[in-house]
Amino acid sequence: MARISEPLNVPTSIEAAFDHVADFTTSAAWDPGITEARRLDDGPIGMGSRFEVQLKLGPTTVPLVYEITAYERPNRVVLTTKGLVHRGEDDVRFQPTDDGTEVTWNALFALRGPGLLLDPALGVGFRKTAAKAVQGLERSLRALATN
What we know:
The protein has 3 helices and 7 strands; from the N terminus they run βααββββββα. The chain is of the alpha+beta class. It has a 7-stranded antiparallel beta sheet.
C-alpha cells in the first residue's frame, strides 16, 4: 500500500480549484501518468460521477474507473477506484487562504489479489508518480488564476 499527502498553495479561488479537480477529465492535462481521461456519465458533476482514465504503466496503459464518493463543494472531493488487482482513494481538501487556496491531496493506492505480490515495490514508484501529478496540478491551478 502506498500513501501520499501533498499540500500546495495556489492563487486560485477555492471554487475554481475545487471544480477543476472534481472534473477528473482535467487529470489528463496535469498528470503525466494519465494519457487520457473521459467522463462516463452525464449531468452536473457530483456524487456518483464517474470517470475513466488511462494510466501509463511502462510500455502499456491500464484503464482505471474513478467515482466521486464524497462531494462537499467547495471544501472536499473524494474519488475512489477499485478493480480486480487494485484499490485507490484520492481525498482532496480545499481551504481558502488570504491569497487563494490551500489544496491538500491525500492519496492511497493498494494492490489486491494477485497484485499483492508487487505491493512492496509499489510505494516508491507511486510516490514519484504522485509527486509529478501534484506538481502538474499546481501548474494547472496557477494557470486558472491568470485566465
